[in-house]
Amino acid sequence: MRQIIIIGSGPAGYTAAIYAARANLRPLVIASSVEAGGELMNTTDVENFPGFPEGIQGPELMMKMQEQAERFGAEVVYDDVVRLELEGAVKTVTLGSGESHEALAVIVATGSAYRKLGLADEERLSGHGVSWCATCDGFFFKNKTIAVVGGGDSAMEEATFLTRFASKVYVIHRKDTLRASKIMQERAFANDKIEFVWNAEVSGITGDDAVDGVRLRNTVSGDQSTLELGGLFVAIGNDPRTHLVHKQLALTPEGTIAVQGRSSRTTVAGVFAAGDVVDPTYRQAVTAAASGTVAALDAEHYLTSLPQDLLAQASEPELATVTE
Ligand code: NDP
Q1: Contact at 8 Å (CB) between 315 and 301?
Q2: Mutation probe of ligand 1 site: the residue of 39, 153, 233 with most atoms within 8 A of C-beta
Q3: How far apart are the first and last CA of the chain?
Q4: Per-chain mean pLDDT for the chain
Q5: Under a CB-based contact definition with an 8 Å cutoff, are residues 134 and 233 in contact?
Q6: Is 133 assigned a catalytic role?
Q7: Rounded average pLDDT over 271-297
Q8: Cα separation, 282 vs 275, whole angstroms
Q9: What is the distance in A from the centroid of ligand 1 to the CA of 151?
Protein backbone atom coordinates (compact mmCIF):
# COMPACT_ATOMS: atom_id res chain seq x y z
CA MET A 1 0.00 0.00 0.00
CA ARG A 2 1.08 3.55 -0.81
CA GLN A 3 0.73 6.67 1.23
CA ILE A 4 -0.39 8.71 -1.73
CA ILE A 5 -1.52 8.28 -5.32
CA ILE A 6 -1.89 11.21 -7.68
CA ILE A 7 -4.19 10.81 -10.67
CA GLY A 8 -3.24 13.10 -13.52
CA SER A 9 -0.01 14.45 -14.94
CA GLY A 10 -0.71 18.05 -15.86
CA PRO A 11 0.70 21.01 -13.92
CA ALA A 12 -1.53 20.20 -10.92
CA GLY A 13 -0.59 16.52 -10.80
CA TYR A 14 3.15 17.05 -11.21
CA THR A 15 3.32 19.95 -8.77
CA ALA A 16 1.47 17.85 -6.20
CA ALA A 17 3.99 15.09 -6.96
CA ILE A 18 6.97 17.42 -6.45
CA TYR A 19 5.67 18.50 -3.03
CA ALA A 20 4.65 15.00 -1.96
CA ALA A 21 7.96 13.54 -3.14
CA ARG A 22 9.95 16.20 -1.31
CA ALA A 23 7.98 15.26 1.81
CA ASN A 24 9.28 11.73 1.33
CA LEU A 25 5.86 10.29 0.52
CA ARG A 26 7.08 8.59 -2.69
CA PRO A 27 3.90 9.40 -4.64
CA LEU A 28 2.69 7.23 -7.46
CA VAL A 29 1.52 9.36 -10.39
CA ILE A 30 -0.98 7.77 -12.76
CA ALA A 31 -0.18 9.75 -15.89
CA SER A 32 -2.69 8.33 -18.42
CA SER A 33 -1.79 6.20 -21.41
CA VAL A 34 -2.33 8.72 -24.20
CA GLU A 35 -2.79 12.06 -22.51
CA ALA A 36 0.25 12.10 -20.23
CA GLY A 37 1.36 15.65 -19.51
CA GLY A 38 -2.14 17.01 -19.89
CA GLU A 39 -3.31 19.84 -22.05
CA LEU A 40 -0.01 21.67 -22.28
CA MET A 41 1.23 18.79 -24.44
CA ASN A 42 -1.02 20.22 -27.16
CA THR A 43 0.23 23.77 -26.80
CA THR A 44 3.11 25.53 -28.48
CA ASP A 45 4.51 28.64 -26.80
CA VAL A 46 3.66 29.11 -23.14
CA GLU A 47 4.43 32.76 -22.53
CA ASN A 48 2.83 33.29 -19.15
CA PHE A 49 4.43 30.67 -16.91
CA PRO A 50 6.69 32.66 -14.56
CA GLY A 51 10.39 31.92 -14.80
CA PHE A 52 10.54 31.57 -18.58
CA PRO A 53 10.95 35.12 -19.92
CA GLU A 54 11.48 33.86 -23.48
CA GLY A 55 8.51 31.48 -23.23
CA ILE A 56 8.72 27.70 -23.24
CA GLN A 57 7.08 25.00 -25.35
CA GLY A 58 4.21 23.27 -23.52
CA PRO A 59 5.63 19.73 -23.88
CA GLU A 60 9.06 20.88 -22.65
CA LEU A 61 7.52 22.51 -19.59
CA MET A 62 5.69 19.29 -18.75
CA MET A 63 8.84 17.22 -19.25
CA LYS A 64 10.67 19.47 -16.81
CA MET A 65 7.87 19.17 -14.24
CA GLN A 66 7.98 15.39 -14.53
CA GLU A 67 11.78 15.35 -14.19
CA GLN A 68 11.54 17.51 -11.11
CA ALA A 69 8.98 15.17 -9.50
CA GLU A 70 11.00 12.06 -10.38
CA ARG A 71 14.18 13.60 -9.03
CA PHE A 72 12.63 13.52 -5.55
CA GLY A 73 11.26 10.00 -5.86
CA ALA A 74 7.87 10.24 -7.58
CA GLU A 75 7.03 7.18 -9.69
CA VAL A 76 5.09 7.62 -12.91
CA VAL A 77 2.86 4.97 -14.48
CA TYR A 78 1.52 5.51 -18.02
CA ASP A 79 -1.91 3.99 -17.68
CA ASP A 80 -5.50 5.10 -17.22
CA VAL A 81 -7.51 4.77 -14.08
CA VAL A 82 -10.65 2.79 -14.82
CA ARG A 83 -12.10 2.56 -11.31
CA LEU A 84 -11.74 4.35 -8.02
CA GLU A 85 -12.96 3.12 -4.65
CA LEU A 86 -12.67 6.08 -2.34
CA GLU A 87 -14.73 5.20 0.74
CA GLY A 88 -12.92 4.06 3.87
CA ALA A 89 -9.37 4.66 5.02
CA VAL A 90 -7.78 2.61 2.27
CA LYS A 91 -8.50 3.79 -1.27
CA THR A 92 -8.21 1.51 -4.30
CA VAL A 93 -7.16 2.71 -7.73
CA THR A 94 -7.65 0.24 -10.58
CA LEU A 95 -5.81 0.75 -13.87
CA GLY A 96 -6.58 -0.22 -17.46
CA SER A 97 -3.97 -2.97 -17.19
CA GLY A 98 -6.08 -4.56 -14.46
CA GLU A 99 -3.51 -3.69 -11.81
CA SER A 100 -4.83 -2.24 -8.54
CA HIS A 101 -3.01 0.09 -6.17
CA GLU A 102 -4.02 0.96 -2.64
CA ALA A 103 -3.27 4.24 -0.90
CA LEU A 104 -4.22 6.18 2.19
CA ALA A 105 -4.64 9.43 0.25
CA VAL A 106 -5.60 10.18 -3.33
CA ILE A 107 -5.22 13.45 -5.21
CA VAL A 108 -7.55 13.74 -8.20
CA ALA A 109 -5.97 16.04 -10.80
CA THR A 110 -7.68 14.72 -13.89
CA GLY A 111 -8.04 18.09 -15.63
CA SER A 112 -10.64 18.71 -18.26
CA ALA A 113 -11.65 17.38 -21.65
CA TYR A 114 -12.35 19.24 -24.88
CA ARG A 115 -15.94 20.42 -25.12
CA LYS A 116 -17.87 19.23 -28.17
CA LEU A 117 -20.41 21.08 -30.26
CA GLY A 118 -22.81 18.19 -29.83
CA LEU A 119 -23.62 17.86 -33.54
CA ALA A 120 -24.44 14.53 -35.12
CA ASP A 121 -21.71 14.81 -37.77
CA GLU A 122 -19.02 15.95 -35.36
CA GLU A 123 -18.13 12.41 -34.22
CA ARG A 124 -18.51 10.95 -37.69
CA LEU A 125 -16.07 13.45 -39.21
CA SER A 126 -13.71 13.52 -36.23
CA GLY A 127 -10.26 12.79 -37.66
CA HIS A 128 -11.65 13.54 -41.13
CA GLY A 129 -11.48 17.29 -40.95
CA VAL A 130 -12.93 17.89 -37.48
CA SER A 131 -10.25 18.37 -34.84
CA TRP A 132 -9.81 19.72 -31.30
CA CYS A 133 -6.05 20.17 -31.47
CA ALA A 134 -4.32 22.55 -33.87
CA THR A 135 -0.82 21.59 -32.81
CA CYS A 136 -1.64 17.91 -33.36
CA ASP A 137 -3.41 18.21 -36.70
CA GLY A 138 -2.61 21.64 -38.18
CA PHE A 139 -0.05 20.18 -40.55
CA PHE A 140 -2.78 18.26 -42.43
CA PHE A 141 -4.48 21.49 -43.48
CA LYS A 142 -1.76 23.00 -45.66
CA ASN A 143 -3.17 25.60 -48.08
CA LYS A 144 -6.76 24.84 -47.07
CA THR A 145 -9.52 27.14 -45.98
CA ILE A 146 -10.52 26.13 -42.49
CA ALA A 147 -12.42 27.49 -39.50
CA VAL A 148 -12.01 27.61 -35.76
CA VAL A 149 -15.12 27.73 -33.57
CA GLY A 150 -14.92 29.73 -30.32
CA GLY A 151 -14.14 33.14 -28.92
CA GLY A 152 -11.74 32.41 -26.05
CA ASP A 153 -7.97 32.26 -25.75
CA SER A 154 -7.89 28.73 -27.10
CA ALA A 155 -9.71 29.74 -30.29
CA MET A 156 -7.39 32.74 -30.83
CA GLU A 157 -4.32 30.64 -30.16
CA GLU A 158 -5.46 27.86 -32.49
CA ALA A 159 -6.50 30.26 -35.25
CA THR A 160 -3.20 32.13 -35.10
CA PHE A 161 -1.21 28.91 -35.07
CA LEU A 162 -3.21 27.44 -37.97
CA THR A 163 -2.31 30.38 -40.24
CA ARG A 164 1.12 28.74 -40.51
CA PHE A 165 -0.50 26.04 -42.63
CA ALA A 166 -3.91 27.12 -43.88
CA SER A 167 -4.44 29.68 -46.62
CA LYS A 168 -7.37 31.18 -44.70
CA VAL A 169 -8.79 30.72 -41.22
CA TYR A 170 -12.32 31.80 -40.29
CA VAL A 171 -13.09 32.26 -36.62
CA ILE A 172 -16.76 31.47 -36.04
CA HIS A 173 -18.05 32.97 -32.82
CA ARG A 174 -21.58 33.01 -31.46
CA LYS A 175 -21.29 36.59 -30.16
CA ASP A 176 -19.88 39.84 -31.52
CA THR A 177 -17.26 40.25 -28.81
CA LEU A 178 -14.53 37.88 -27.78
CA ARG A 179 -13.89 36.33 -24.41
CA ALA A 180 -10.17 36.00 -25.22
CA SER A 181 -7.53 38.13 -23.49
CA LYS A 182 -6.63 41.43 -25.14
CA ILE A 183 -3.20 40.32 -26.32
CA MET A 184 -4.55 37.17 -27.98
CA GLN A 185 -7.38 39.11 -29.62
CA GLU A 186 -5.01 41.70 -31.01
CA ARG A 187 -2.72 39.06 -32.43
CA ALA A 188 -5.66 37.46 -34.23
CA PHE A 189 -7.08 40.79 -35.47
CA ALA A 190 -3.66 41.74 -36.89
CA ASN A 191 -3.36 38.49 -38.85
CA ASP A 192 -4.36 38.94 -42.51
CA LYS A 193 -5.28 35.29 -42.92
CA ILE A 194 -7.90 35.37 -40.16
CA GLU A 195 -11.45 36.50 -40.82
CA PHE A 196 -14.11 36.65 -38.12
CA VAL A 197 -17.65 35.40 -38.62
CA TRP A 198 -19.59 37.05 -35.79
CA ASN A 199 -22.88 36.02 -34.20
CA ALA A 200 -22.76 32.65 -35.86
CA GLU A 201 -23.43 29.19 -34.54
CA VAL A 202 -22.41 26.02 -36.35
CA SER A 203 -25.66 24.13 -36.84
CA GLY A 204 -24.28 21.36 -39.04
CA ILE A 205 -21.07 19.94 -40.47
CA THR A 206 -21.19 18.64 -44.02
CA GLY A 207 -19.07 16.22 -46.06
CA ASP A 208 -19.32 12.53 -46.92
CA ASP A 209 -15.83 11.23 -46.14
CA ALA A 210 -14.26 14.50 -45.02
CA VAL A 211 -15.43 17.95 -43.99
CA ASP A 212 -16.43 20.12 -46.94
CA GLY A 213 -18.27 22.86 -45.08
CA VAL A 214 -20.53 23.95 -42.28
CA ARG A 215 -24.06 25.22 -41.93
CA LEU A 216 -24.32 28.40 -39.91
CA ARG A 217 -27.18 30.02 -38.06
CA ASN A 218 -27.01 33.72 -37.25
CA THR A 219 -27.62 34.02 -33.50
CA VAL A 220 -29.25 37.46 -33.90
CA SER A 221 -31.37 37.17 -37.04
CA GLY A 222 -31.73 33.39 -37.16
CA ASP A 223 -30.66 33.42 -40.84
CA GLN A 224 -29.09 30.25 -42.19
CA SER A 225 -26.01 30.17 -44.41
CA THR A 226 -23.24 27.82 -45.46
CA LEU A 227 -19.46 28.12 -45.56
CA GLU A 228 -17.18 25.90 -47.64
CA LEU A 229 -14.31 24.56 -45.57
CA GLY A 230 -11.56 21.98 -45.71
CA GLY A 231 -11.46 21.58 -41.94
CA LEU A 232 -13.05 22.60 -38.67
CA PHE A 233 -11.29 23.10 -35.35
CA VAL A 234 -13.47 23.16 -32.25
CA ALA A 235 -12.00 25.35 -29.49
CA ILE A 236 -14.98 26.08 -27.25
CA GLY A 237 -13.47 25.27 -23.89
CA ASN A 238 -13.27 22.24 -21.69
CA ASP A 239 -15.36 20.34 -19.20
CA PRO A 240 -13.92 18.98 -15.95
CA ARG A 241 -13.10 15.30 -16.17
CA THR A 242 -15.06 13.85 -13.29
CA HIS A 243 -16.44 10.55 -14.62
CA LEU A 244 -14.23 8.52 -12.24
CA VAL A 245 -15.68 10.17 -9.14
CA HIS A 246 -19.36 10.44 -10.05
CA LYS A 247 -21.55 9.34 -7.17
CA GLN A 248 -18.48 9.25 -4.89
CA LEU A 249 -17.54 12.93 -4.55
CA ALA A 250 -19.89 15.92 -4.51
CA LEU A 251 -19.70 18.17 -7.56
CA THR A 252 -20.43 21.90 -7.87
CA PRO A 253 -23.21 23.29 -10.11
CA GLU A 254 -20.44 24.07 -12.66
CA GLY A 255 -19.55 20.38 -12.72
CA THR A 256 -16.18 20.67 -10.97
CA ILE A 257 -15.31 18.58 -7.90
CA ALA A 258 -16.51 20.40 -4.77
CA VAL A 259 -13.76 21.29 -2.30
CA GLN A 260 -13.98 22.91 1.13
CA GLY A 261 -13.12 26.61 1.03
CA ARG A 262 -9.64 27.31 -0.28
CA SER A 263 -8.52 23.78 0.51
CA SER A 264 -8.40 20.77 -1.78
CA ARG A 265 -10.44 18.61 0.60
CA THR A 266 -13.33 16.88 -1.12
CA THR A 267 -16.40 15.42 0.55
CA VAL A 268 -14.54 12.16 1.24
CA ALA A 269 -11.77 12.09 3.85
CA GLY A 270 -8.36 11.36 2.33
CA VAL A 271 -9.42 12.43 -1.17
CA PHE A 272 -8.15 15.74 -2.49
CA ALA A 273 -8.69 17.46 -5.82
CA ALA A 274 -6.58 19.96 -7.74
CA GLY A 275 -6.23 21.78 -11.05
CA ASP A 276 -8.82 22.25 -13.78
CA VAL A 277 -11.06 19.57 -12.26
CA VAL A 278 -11.83 21.97 -9.37
CA ASP A 279 -11.51 25.29 -11.19
CA PRO A 280 -14.31 26.62 -13.39
CA THR A 281 -12.76 30.09 -13.60
CA TYR A 282 -9.02 30.62 -13.94
CA ARG A 283 -7.73 27.40 -15.47
CA GLN A 284 -4.15 28.50 -16.09
CA ALA A 285 -1.09 26.29 -15.88
CA VAL A 286 0.20 28.37 -13.01
CA THR A 287 -3.06 28.29 -11.03
CA ALA A 288 -3.28 24.53 -11.59
CA ALA A 289 0.28 24.17 -10.29
CA ALA A 290 -0.59 26.23 -7.21
CA SER A 291 -3.64 24.10 -6.64
CA GLY A 292 -1.46 20.97 -6.84
CA THR A 293 0.67 22.42 -4.06
CA VAL A 294 -2.40 22.95 -1.87
CA ALA A 295 -3.50 19.35 -2.47
CA ALA A 296 -0.10 17.90 -1.58
CA LEU A 297 0.07 19.92 1.64
CA ASP A 298 -3.51 19.00 2.58
CA ALA A 299 -2.75 15.33 1.90
CA GLU A 300 0.40 15.51 4.03
CA HIS A 301 -1.54 17.01 6.92
CA TYR A 302 -4.23 14.38 6.54
CA LEU A 303 -1.67 11.57 6.58
CA THR A 304 -0.07 12.86 9.77
CA SER A 305 -3.51 12.67 11.43
CA LEU A 306 -3.94 8.94 10.69
CA PRO A 307 -3.31 6.23 13.30
CA GLN A 308 0.24 4.89 13.31
CA ASP A 309 -0.82 1.29 12.66
CA LEU A 310 -2.55 2.34 9.46
CA LEU A 311 0.45 4.37 8.35
CA ALA A 312 2.70 1.42 9.07
CA GLN A 313 0.75 -0.58 6.51
CA ALA A 314 1.78 1.85 3.79
CA SER A 315 4.95 0.31 2.49
CA GLU A 316 6.65 3.59 1.62
CA PRO A 317 9.02 5.57 3.90
CA GLU A 318 7.74 7.21 7.06
CA LEU A 319 6.13 10.59 6.94
CA ALA A 320 8.57 13.41 6.81
CA THR A 321 7.84 16.68 8.51
CA VAL A 322 6.30 19.30 6.27
CA THR A 323 8.92 21.35 4.48
CA GLU A 324 8.06 24.50 2.60
P1 NDP B 1 -13.21 29.64 -22.63
O2 NDP B 1 -14.23 29.01 -21.77
O3 NDP B 1 -12.43 30.81 -22.13
O4 NDP B 1 -13.88 30.10 -24.01
C5 NDP B 1 -14.73 29.24 -24.72
C6 NDP B 1 -15.28 30.00 -25.92
O7 NDP B 1 -16.06 29.10 -26.69
C8 NDP B 1 -16.16 31.17 -25.53
O9 NDP B 1 -15.95 32.23 -26.41
C10 NDP B 1 -17.56 30.59 -25.66
O11 NDP B 1 -18.52 31.52 -26.09
C12 NDP B 1 -17.39 29.59 -26.77
N13 NDP B 1 -18.33 28.47 -26.62
C14 NDP B 1 -18.54 27.69 -25.53
N15 NDP B 1 -19.43 26.73 -25.79
C16 NDP B 1 -19.82 26.90 -27.08
C17 NDP B 1 -20.72 26.21 -27.93
N18 NDP B 1 -21.40 25.14 -27.53
N19 NDP B 1 -20.83 26.65 -29.20
C20 NDP B 1 -20.13 27.73 -29.63
N21 NDP B 1 -19.26 28.42 -28.88
C22 NDP B 1 -19.10 28.01 -27.61
O23 NDP B 1 -12.25 28.43 -23.07
P24 NDP B 1 -10.79 28.45 -23.65
O25 NDP B 1 -10.49 27.03 -23.95
O26 NDP B 1 -10.64 29.42 -24.74
O27 NDP B 1 -9.89 28.92 -22.44
C28 NDP B 1 -9.93 28.21 -21.19
C29 NDP B 1 -8.91 28.82 -20.21
O30 NDP B 1 -7.59 28.57 -20.67
C31 NDP B 1 -9.07 30.33 -20.10
O32 NDP B 1 -8.81 30.69 -18.78
C33 NDP B 1 -7.98 30.86 -21.00
O34 NDP B 1 -7.51 32.12 -20.60
C35 NDP B 1 -6.89 29.80 -20.84
N36 NDP B 1 -6.04 29.74 -22.04
C37 NDP B 1 -4.92 30.52 -22.06
C38 NDP B 1 -4.09 30.52 -23.15
C39 NDP B 1 -2.89 31.40 -23.12
O40 NDP B 1 -2.83 32.31 -22.31
N41 NDP B 1 -1.92 31.19 -23.98
C42 NDP B 1 -4.33 29.68 -24.32
C43 NDP B 1 -5.56 28.91 -24.22
C44 NDP B 1 -6.37 28.96 -23.12
P45 NDP B 1 -19.04 32.72 -25.15
O46 NDP B 1 -17.93 33.73 -25.16
O47 NDP B 1 -20.26 33.15 -25.85
O48 NDP B 1 -19.28 32.11 -23.82
Answers
A1: no
A2: 153
A3: 26
A4: 94
A5: yes
A6: yes
A7: 96
A8: 10
A9: 6
Query: How many separate helices (H) and strands (E) can be counted in the chain?
Result: 8, 19
Which atom of ligand 1 is the closest one to the Cα of 157?
42
Per-residue confidence (pLDDT) for residue 315, from 0 to 100: 65
Report how far residue 172's alpha carbon sits from residue 47's, in angstroms, rounded to the nearest whole number: 25
Pick from 40, 45, 179 the residue to mutate for probing ligand 1's pocket: most ligand atoms within 8 Å of its CB: 179
Pocket of ligand 1 (CB under 6 A): 48, 115, 117, 149-155, 157, 174-175, 179, 236-238, 283
Q: pTM to 2 decimals?
A: 0.80
In the chain the beta strands, taken as DSSP E runs, fall at 2-7, 28-30, 45-46, 56-57, 75-77, 81-85, 91-95, 100-108, 112-114, 130-131, 145-149, 168-172, 194-197, 200-206, 213-218, 224-228, 231-234, 238-240, 271-273
